[in-house]
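Thanks for the sequence, V.! I ran Glutamine synthetase right away. Repeating your input here for the record:
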Amino acid sequence: MSSPEVTLASLPELLQNDAAVKVAGVDVDGVLRGKLMAKSKFLSIAEKGFGFCSVIFGWDMHDQTYFKELAISNAKNGYRDVIAVPDLTSFRRIPWENDVPFFLVSFHDPDTGSTLSVCPRSLLRRTVDKLKENGMGAMAGAEYEFYQFKAPDQESGGAERNSSATAAFLKQNPAHQLPALTEGMFGYSLTRPIQNQDYYYGVFDACAKFGCGIEGWHTESGPGVYEAALEFGEITAMADKAALFKLTVKSIGSKHGITPCFMAKPRAGLPGNSGHMHVSLVDSSGKNLLARETEDPNPPYPDLRHLSDLGRHFLAGLLDGLPDIMPILAPTINSYKRLVENFWAPVTVSWGLEHRAASIRLIAPPTASPKATRFEVRVPGADTNPHFVLAAILALGWRGVEKKLEIAVPPLGKGQDMGGEGDKGERLAKSLKEATARMARPGSVAREALGDQFVDHFAGTREHECRLWEEAVTDWEFSRYIETV
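Predicted structure:
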């Protein structure tokens, strides 16, 4: 479990009975990349870090180098090392790997020593530091929905059923033949999890031991779909927990012959997988700064009567910048197949008090207590990088505070749907290509809030994703055109 008490001096005693240590950092796609190292090696690099090949910022999620060379890692600089510095406060033991010690790392530029512009953990930390300079902090919560599929039996005889078996199956078979963990639509079922009881409770218990505890854990509507709400906490720790939650589910699933799927839209005609994020601001004592001390008798909109002026500026910043950070909230080609009308997914710049059809749901009195006042950003899918999502949300909101922006879009009324007559918000991008072009353009809000270096790199990675899609020949195309054209 995470412990802030770990220091360089206490490491030898902490690891006295261990032979090895596992370390990992987060790449652009939110994937944990790391290694196992001897304890003696770890102790020698715990303070100043060690060289880690920068190629993890020079290739995609399947280890294919980006078609366009990007600044961090490329052939010209020899895919040189960056410096990976262990975060001692991230200490955990991996319960499903015999309690091997585990630390997260952050990446630094070897020339300047400063944090790497595209390091997900560092981007969020830099954003949080801006609030800290003003005596504030941020809290967050994450919710993930995901499908689960049964890993098919290997035909090689006796091979273990795991995620590799699923990958091998999909090389030879269409995706629709992959069996779901359970059949039918049965959200909040008390009986469906019993069909896979060891896995269901195994995930819950492993998350608690691994410092990414689950607050709520249930089936969601869809064949083999679960939803987890992670325990609310400080925003940088929350992002780590979200990344580690995915690692936990995939690891435990693989041991049970189950392949969890965090794609935004795994099945046509069925609901997608969301990755909603909850965010609030606090002062140094932990007091919620979004709640208004006394109800505003004359608010710009009734929905805002319990939201502080700080909260209103933060909300205005979110609404103003939302279209420009869409590649972060919807980072894959598949993401945009979830963000369509009539599927409980937001498609416009919209908000409203307790409005689950809006992009931003304001949770505040009278339905919530003042200390629970927060924003739920409902655009992200489960396929997102949690560090980037939370950094972008916080950066946009804080920009609204600094500029004292005013809310330019009226709230959705109860019973009003996105895209309807009452929705005055801009339609969000309908494709990754459209979203990336908007984010990358000169003068975008994303550039102002997150920096040119980050946007140039991240936009380049999304352009790579778009190019691979444009060059792909799909089963749909082949079936449709093989005979008739």
